[in-house]
Input
Amino acid sequence: MTERTKGDLVLDVSQLRIEVRTDAGPGPVLVDDVSFTLRRGEVLGLIGESGAGKSTIGLAVLGYTRANCFITGGSLRFHGRDIRTMSAAERRALRGPGVAYIAQSAAASFNPAHTILQQVCEIPIQQGLLSPAAARSRAIGLFRELDLPNPEQFGDRYPHQVSGGQLQRAMAAMAMAARPDILIFDEPTTALDVTTQVEVLASFRKLIREHGTSAIYITHDLAVVAQIADEIMVLRQGRMVEHGTADAILHHPQQDYTRRLVAERFEAHGHHAQDSGALLELRHVVASYASLLRVVNDVSLRIQRGDTLAVVGESGSGKSSLARVIMGLLPREAGDIRFRDEMLASRLKDRTREQLRRVQMIYQSPDVALNPNQTLLQIIGRPVQFYFRRSRAEVRARVLELLAMMDLPADYIDRKPGALSGGQKQRVGIARALAAEPDLIICDEVTSALDQLVGEEILKLLKRLQEELGIAYLFITHDLGTVKRIANKVAVMLKGEMVDGGETEAVFAPPYHPYTQLLLSSVPEMRSDWLDGVLAGRAG
Amino acid sequence: MLRLVMLRLAFGAMTVLAASVLIFAGTELLPGDLATAILQNSATPENVAEMRAQLGLDRPAPVRYAEWISHAAQGDLGISLSNQHPVAEELAPRLRNSFFLAAFAACVSVPLAVLLGLLAAIYQNSWYDRAVNFITLLTISVPEYLVGYLLVKYLSVRWGLFPSLANVAPENTLLERLDLTFLPMLTLVLVVVAHMMRMTRASVLNIMASPYIEMAFLKGLTKSRVVVRHAFPNALAPIISVIALNLAYLIVGVVVVEAVFVYPGLGQLLVDAVAKHDLPVVQACGLIFACVFILLNLLADIMAILSNPRLRRAR
Amino acid sequence: MVKLFGQRVPLPALIGLLIIVANLLAAAFAPWIAPFPEADVVGDAWAEADATYWLGLDNLGRDIFSRLLYGARMSIGLSLLITVLSFTIGVIGGFTAAIGKGWIDAALSRFVDLILAMPTLIFAFVVLSVMGTDLAVLVVTLACLDSVKVFRLARALAVNIGALEYVEVARVRGEGLWWVITREILPNALAPLIAEFGLRFTFAFLFVAALSFLGLGVQPPAADWGSMVRDYRDVIALDSPAPFYPAGAIALLTIGVNFVVDWLLALHARGYGEGA
Output
């Protein structure tokens, strides 16, 4: 990709600085001393964790800052003219034919009151670039290029009438309608399922290559950006960490932070549970919501002490419902659940306190999993007091011990969750689960709300705890990368049914089940030719 | 969507029916009964029994309810206890007066409130916005009679601009009526505008904060086009319901304002009837107020359904 | 700098709190503060204000300032009683519906929808016309009518908070219903409930005052702000300030409560407890 001939300079951003300023005074600096250039047909990937300032930079290129944010230094030259000094009318004229934006959530970014075609054609017509008829035929052409179904009629539908992946592509059509020089992609595939992500990503790449459009591709996922970008800039807390060609960043990272992002993530499996009989066993379990919508259909599973069983599937596959069935939150309609050779009651309230204690859960979003009005002592101490009836002093001592285990400072004990970072909150959630001294912990997408490096730390912590305490995990995730590295057993779910399962090595090795293969091939890999390989494989 | 509208209509009809049952049941709470109330001091057991038979009170309540509601539906609202006139005759001119006042107030307050609310939303956090917010918070807190008397004190007593009493008569011309009802109208407007304006501002701001509005700006549209084409169609439903809600309030709120200005409207009639325990009049007024209130709410909901594209077109 | 809930209190809210406290003190200690008994005629009707009679005398020659203090008792006391009663009914009903789910919830919610679609004030008039202006009847009627609005909010709060994962954690731990409600749900519903209490109070307060103004609420000789406005309204034509004292007192307290409510609602929108 790097060999592609690059055209003239389109954008020159130099020493950009963006700050928050409110009535109360100056706030944090969001972007500091960031410089880069963009040539015709070139794609720059901006990568970083949340708070890195990547979206703020992307919006600044459009001459736009969110409420209370101000560009306070540097320049953004678009074809030599500084966007900072443009008048409001000039900036408006820049947006559309100059720079166009593709947001993360198409569902929220389309106006529900108008048809897709009206919104795609709006800018070329409004800015007097095309007649309504010409705009319409261009839109239909774009729908066709983006592999949307029935391009002739697709635009007559309203945003809520099409699927998420289609709407995301329709947004790309909307951005391309005025033939901009630069496209800003802001996490455009993050909200999509992996199998959809591959198709959307391929459509985007085809689009910019055919039109020779320059692009800034913003994402937190290095493997995704590697498929589309010529150059990559790594950002952290508003500052540039490293900038180079995609291959250089992927294969020869210079900075320690980049190395950690790129590093082949740790491999923990190889750990095998000794065969000590089943801890949890599900036989032909069936469950529905409101006895109408069947969400779990005939699922059988077996977890041994010290096992990590990963349940994988896309959204709507029933994997989270399965966890709720095991917890007793969603009563099963048929089938058995045995735990330590005892039959678990279908409903939560029919289970003994001891049964409840032995199965604990950690949630996806630590923000809503911790009561904001309680201190860590109350949050973590309550299970100790509730299940073991310890004295006040003993509870406090146990909470301190657990905090230490989580590498959290002891003086956090009297803080409330609001004062903690996302990763710290998740550690509190783990501590609360451990406080019950369980045999099995159900982990529901525990890393997907966290930044990559923070999530890695949480996975390492969970693995360490397993080795020390011999706990079994049931790991619910959509991220196959995680599964391969942490689980010794896998169950693949699709529309409520378990379509594939067994030892991880066996499931993730040929001969594959077709759906497993589709999922596996959709996970972006840290090499720039991955997407080409997948597309070639699927075409063949 | 048609199903939704039909459902809403059915619910509206049910509400009217339930309201009429409640109004009727309320009057059944009377210790003793209507007969004792009419006869008062001369209520010997024989007299009461005779009166009960005469009024048909010896029949079971459901029968009397059915009779009352079917007569009411045909425009026969019974006979007033205090002056023996048919209630409907007494009610009709007063109902017209009340509607006139409410409509006058609505014509002024609705455009004013929506305009002020839109301006406050567009110039959010400006001095104008803050001032309007503060002032409306004050006027929301002030009871109608204080506003009314303040207006009387200054606009009428001190400066003599408008009459302080709104004693309209049937022979008044429209212009005279507008002059006579100017102060009550202004009072109602001042009280209602604050509410309507605040709710309009809130619903427009809510829409303006949505990602598709940011997207519209990022597409390079002008502010006026964003507001008119992208924000307005989506803000319409909440604004309509705000208006309907406040019109419903206007209808009920006239009671106090009518008392302040001694205006011969339905509210005054209701208050007098309550004081005199004139049950047929109370029932009739209650039924009319309830119907208007329910009807306006019904209209608001149906307009909201019609203006929502997600509901207008199914998947 | 005054702090509450770990947040700085803005100026309007501070003023509001001061107004509320002053009114409550006046209401509680009226017999001790007031220079004259509420119903005693102490001079000529409509005597001008002077050092003895701070706000002058009223239509019968009673001290207006003393009547205002006693009036605070009646007006605020009645409204508080109504609000407390309606909150007790509404919160218990709302939480029962949210936690009971199923048919209990469906039945209660449909019933409340029906009541909300009707003009509740009209029913107050109907009941008053039948039962006469009995204060106990007035309080119970208004409390019942108002409780449906509290029910709506309490149910929504309990449903929304009850669906959060930390509440699920407590249920899965095996905690009883009492713990879940008092430790997990209620503390997080407190700010909006307090704000709603303020709103419902102003509503009850204004309505009681309006009824008295119409002559249907508190009856003479008891002092009450609404009926004082009614008693003094005739002198408006004489350019006397008398009716504006009670009317202004009503407005002032309502403004104070609204300032505090506005702040509490903003606090809730921001999510209080952060950084505490």
The CA atoms of residues 372 and 417 of chain A lie 6 Å apart. The mean pLDDT of chain A is 89. The longest helix of chain A spans residues 194-211.
